[in-house]
Amino acid sequence: MSDDNTLLSGLRIIEMSHVMAAPTCGMFLADMGADVVKIERLPKGDDVRENAPFVDDESAPFAIMNRNKRGVGLNMKTDEGKAILRRLIVGADIFIENYRKGAMDHYGVAYDQIKDDCPKLIYCSISGFGQTGPYADRGGFDLVTQGMSGLMSITGEGPGRPPVKVGAPVTDIMAGVLGTTGILAALNKRHETGMGQQVDTSLFEAGIMMTYWQSAIYMASGQVPGAMGSAHPLMAPYQAFQTEDGWLNLGAANQNTWLKMIDVLGAPKLADDPRFESPSIRMDNLAELVAVLTVHFQKDTTDNWMTKLMQAGVPAGPVLDVAQMTSDPQALARQMIQDIGTSQGSSLRVLGHPIKYSKTPTQIKRPAPRLGQHTAEVMAEVGYSKEEISAFTDNGVIE
């Protein structure tokens, strides 16, 4: 998918991935115009292919993370399959993998096994806990790393309540973003030195970096922050409030927006209430503050409050569900919802690319590949003959 008017035109990326972290990384780079070839192990391929819901027998979760890629299916239990994988990697600019530590050694393509044959290669490993340290051999899952990174201790309703994970698999997704960032940094360095390197990041580190506020509090004061629902550990009111018909997020934490907000509420006496006279005092009396404000917000609808707060310049926003988000005018204006269709022509919507560029806009040009859809095409590009490809097919090495 080479296009001279893209950010990463001319780059060949081999992505040997499953589930979410590396597929997210590869998706970002494919959206930017790189030729991303996804390697899947036969016979079933990426486990996400079996995840519902399905449109025309195609997995919607698989489609959303693997658009803009070409697909190759290899039988990695064969020596021929391993040899093909190595040949593809050696001829590429970038290799991305997110298998458990040791898997690439088994296939003969660990970084130390391959770097001498392709010194310019940028080799990105995304794992549960990274390639070094006492947990390096552990498998990593979003739920586990959300817990171990401290993230679950600050998510949920508060003391005495069960631990709650962030609803989305945020450590998987953020690890993919970190992998993308690392690859682009290494690519910039390669322009200077001509040499590649290994990029190593993890779900664990992705979770840790989301605790910036709370880690700052603990490391400076020794106080261990806990879960506060939608509230903020340092500012108030800065959380969700129930309205007559839903929920509203309110960001009126500084004194200026606080005074504007109580004017909108028609509650001027709150300006002189000693419990709420400054930001720090409001934090000290957070429970009382929430109780007082909730009484006011429950008197009107979310839409009506939004109109009044926006006119007054008070930061606020409704709490939307996913269906409401996908039809929100701002999400549509920013092209965050796009219909790429299935291979059989049915409608299938995916999330768009979240970064906008003035001169080299991204595009979703192809849906996620069927298992092994581009195997012959990609193998021919690295020098395999039609006869060799046919023989590999007959012997079950490729699909």
Task: Give a quick set of tags describing it.
2 domains; six-stranded parallel β-sheet; formyl-coa transferase, domain 3; three-stranded antiparallel β-sheet; Rossmann fold; 13 strands; 17 helices; alpha/beta
Task: Describe what is shown at a glance.
The protein has 399 residues and is an alpha/beta fold.
SSE order and pairing:
Layout (H helix, E strand, L loop, with lengths): L11 E5 L4 H11 L3 E7 L12 E2 L2 E2 H7 L2 E6 L4 H12 L3 E4 L5 H5 L3 H4 L7 E6 L14 H7 L21 H24 L4 E5 H6 L3 H10 L16 E5 L4 E5 L3 H11 L13 H6 L1 H12 L4 H11 L3 E3 L3 H5 L2 H5 L3 E3 L9 E3 L23 H7 L4 H9 L5
Parallel strand pairs: 1-2, 1-6, 2-5, 6-7, 7-8
Antiparallel strand pairs: 3-4, 9-10, 10-11, 12-13
Helix pairs in contact: 1-7
Can you offer a commentary on this structure?
The protein is of the alpha/beta class and 399 residues long. It folds into 2 domains: 12-209 and 328-394, Crotonobetainyl-coa:carnitine coa-transferase, domain 1 (Rossmann fold); 247-318, formyl-coa transferase, domain 3. Helix content is 38%, strand content 14%. The protein contains 17 helices and 13 strands. It has helices at residues 21-31, 60-66, 79-90, 103-107, 111-114, 142-148, 170-193, 203-208, 212-221, 255-265, 279-284, 286-297, 302-312, 322-326, 329-333, 375-381, 386-394, and strands spanning 12-16, 35-41, 54-55, 58-59, 69-74, 94-97, 122-127, 198-202, 238-242, 247-251, 316-318, 337-339, 349-351. Strands 5-2-1-6-7-8 form a 6-stranded parallel beta sheet, sandwiched between helices. A 3-stranded antiparallel beta sheet has the order 9-10-11, with helices on one face. The chain has a two-stranded antiparallel sheet with strand order 3-4. A hairpin with a 4-residue loop joins strand 9 and strand 10. Helix 1 (21-31) crosses helix 7 (170-193). The radius of gyration is 25 Å and the shape is elongated.
